[in-house]
Amino acid sequence: MAIKSIPQRAGTGIAAAMMLASCPAPAAAQTVQELQRQIDELKAQIKALTDAQKGAPAATAPVAAVPAPAPQVAASTAAPSSTPPPTAPQRVAAVAKPPSARAPWYERMRLRGYTQLRYNGVLDAQDAPGETGSRLRSVHDASINDDGGFLLRRVRLVLQGDITDRLQLYFQHDFGAAVNNQSSTERRENFGQLRDVYVDWFLDPERRLRLRFGQSKVPFGWENLQSSSNRLPLDRSDAINSGVPGERDVGVNVYYTPAPVQAIWDRLIKNKQKLFGNYGAFGLAVYNGQGTNRTERNDSLMKVAMATWPFALDGLGPVFEGQVLELGGSMILNRFRPELRSGISPVEYRDDRVGFHAILYPQPFGIQTEWTTGWGPQYDMALRSVRSQRLGGGYVQLMTDLGRTPIGRAIPYARWQRYRGGWKANVDAPRLETDEWELGTEIQLVDALELTLAYARMERREADSRRTGRATGDLIRTQLQFTY
């Protein structure tokens, strides 16, 4: 007589156990305790047979454990109890759990933003003499005028996140933009305008090397790359911002950040320093060259290069413990067609600039400076036309981080700026002549609420080719920023 194999005997035992479980003795002859004891014995037998089957040399098809039915106890014979009879727990066959899939891309997106509310109080102002004399105006703040009032300087909303492990999306809209020529050139405030839309394609797992495609900030000038939500002074400097008014254009970038640089930047972020944002220690880019949300007007591309490197100064002695000095520079090669009162200029003008920056982060004292020089389109009053001319200027800024105070974290600053050159974003690329002092402090009342108070002494030429001379004025400037 042939002897059955272990798997065959195990399968027969399981089948017998299932038949026994499905044909219990009449409920009237048993108590609840006896039924539960039988169920436990059947479960133990099934477990033993299943373990024997797993250890068999011959592979067999897995058998799903069938839950033992809970016998129904007749109401007339069941023992009286204040609680219902317990139901036998169901046993589910053990199945190998697949590796957890990554969350869908739309669950990896993050929505955030910030809003800036401003008010400028003019203490005194003196326009340049004559009917066409310059009035006290700024290319960065439309509320600096005779009427003043509150201004929503920025209303930004950002959608950002990883589409895949190697692809990241950044989408930013501003609802604080203005448009003109609605009715006798009257402005209309708070229109939506695209600021950024790009994807970063990371070429390595460490995300040190990336390609960027779309509309994004042009890597020219350290302050230009720094977010307005993170900047100490209320506005960017005229000289640095004149190279890329609006800071953005459409193109392709490549950025690289070595590990030692990233380590220092991570340390600064941990210490709550205001960085310029990670645009790489080295960057190369090509853009259309006409500026933010403007149609390309020629067949040439703007070429941009940038390099920046932070140096940890800990090795210089106890005085420099924790200090970081960042040095770098940038360059633009471009041909630009400005907007004229008669339309877009048919002539391309040289628009080549170089700049450098140096930042000693405030821990607690710091200094920041940038300067630029080069050639750019500029209106010539004598010739009554635009031509490429020399330009130059920059700023020096001192700041100190006082840390926590009774009213919040306070960071006082003082900045002086100077610029002589054209402002290519305005009609006829008018010449600016700016000398300005600003003393202020940023107070972080709570994590999401920030107040900036500043005094400014301005001497400015209005950005209008029909105006002459310079206006002067003293202002108290305020800004409340809330982030979300």
UniProtKB/TrEMBL annotation:
Any coiled-coil ranges, and where?
25-52
| Keyword Cell division among record annotations | no
UniProt KW keywords? Coiled coil, Signal
Could you tell me the superkingdom of the organism this chain comes from? Bacteria
The signal sequence is 1-27
**Disordered: annotated segments:** 74-96
Protein name, as recorded:
OprO/OprP family phosphate-selective porin
What is the protein's species of origin? Sphingomonas sanguinis
